[in-house]
From TrEMBL:
The lineage of its organism: Bacteria, Bacillati, Bacillota, Bacilli, Bacillales. It comes from Aneurinibacillus migulanus. This is Aldo/keto reductase. GO terms for molecular function: oxidoreductase activity, acting on the CH-OH group of donors, NAD or NADP as acceptor. The keyword NADP applies. The active site is at Y54. Keywords: NADP, Oxidoreductase.
Length: 277
């Protein structure tokens, strides 16, 4: 399993990114997030996804220093928050995140949300960091096709990743096609939904029973078969291990279609077009 977790997809610039990682949104700063990150790395995870606004970069950094895995084997993502967007303020925010994480470089730096009137200046700052080799890859989060069109109209470097809400009730067909066409790797945040609603879905449970897997494992496998990078969040070691156990089965085309058919265009997070920035 550990080998599978280190395996990755190749981004447009040639950098390899693991297809499954640990998300730490809402993981509390201090021992909770430190233990989650250590448990994940011990289980073979090599990708950890955090953000400035999560308030736990220091804990993530501490766990990385203590995990015993060489830095070059890890893939660390963080994001610039809305209030810090703009050219100079993004460069400052990057330094703050880097210091909190205790790292010399970031593997993937993302714009957290498309803040109108600011994300182009923010992107110029990310391009600068990328050219200076302080980040190995740059991308965006929560960008719709029209945001990406607008961004790429004036940018030198195309986003390598777009991290968005993606799960069986919101399968983002149009956005997936757009990202594929433009060579942008799509990544799912909150792939298992929130509050456990998805994990109780009868169709997902039924499909899981067929393969001897949980509904969560079925969803994560569905992500992978759609070529989506996925970062399930958990602070429980048993669940972290379970979420990674998705490489020993393949969903049939029929089961993939059944899961696709669950789409309701239902968001659990904010709508990027109507978000109070």
């Amino acid at each position: 399993m550990a080998n599978h977790l280190a395996e990755g997809t190749t981004l447009s610039n040639g950098v390899k990114m693991p297809r499954v990682g640990l998300g730490v949104w809402k993981s509390k700063e201090g021992s909770e997030v430190e233990n989650a990150v250590k448990a994940a790395i011990k289980a073979g995870y090599r990708s950890i996804d955090t953000a400035a606004v999560y308030g736990n970069e220091t804990g993530v950094g501490k766990a990385l220093q203590e995990c015993g895995v060489p830095r070059e084997e890890l893939f660390i993502t963080t994001k610039v928050w809305n209030a810090d967007q703009g050219y100079d303020s993004t460069l400052q925010a990057f330094e703050t995140s880097l210091n909190k994480l205790g790292l010399e470089y970031i593997d993937l730096y993302l714009i957290h949300w498309p803040v109108k009137g600011k994300y182009k200046d923010t992107w110029r700052a990310l391009e600068k960091l990328y050219k200076e080799e302080r980040v190995r890859a740059i991308g965006v989060s929560n960008f719709q096709p029209h945001h990406l069109d607008d961004l790429m109209a004036d940018s030198e470097i195309k986003p390598m990743v777009n991290q968005v809400e993606f799960h069986p009730l919101l399968n983002q067909k149009e956005l997936r096609a757009y990202c594929k066409k433009h060579g942008i790797q799509m990544e799912a945040w909150s792939p298992l939904g929130q509050g456990g609603e998805l994990l109780k879905h009868p169709v997902l449970i039924e499909i899981g029973d067929k393969y001897g897997k949980t509904a969560a494992q079925v969803i994560l496998r569905w992500d992978l078969q759609h070529e989506i990078v996925t970062i399930p969040k958990s602070v429980h070691e048993e669940r972290i291990i379970q979420n990674a156990d998705v490489f020993d089965f393949t969903l049939s085309a029929e089961d993939m279609e059944r899961i696709d058919a669950l789409n309701e265009d239902k968001r659990i997070g904010p709508d990027p077009d109507n978000f109070d920035f």
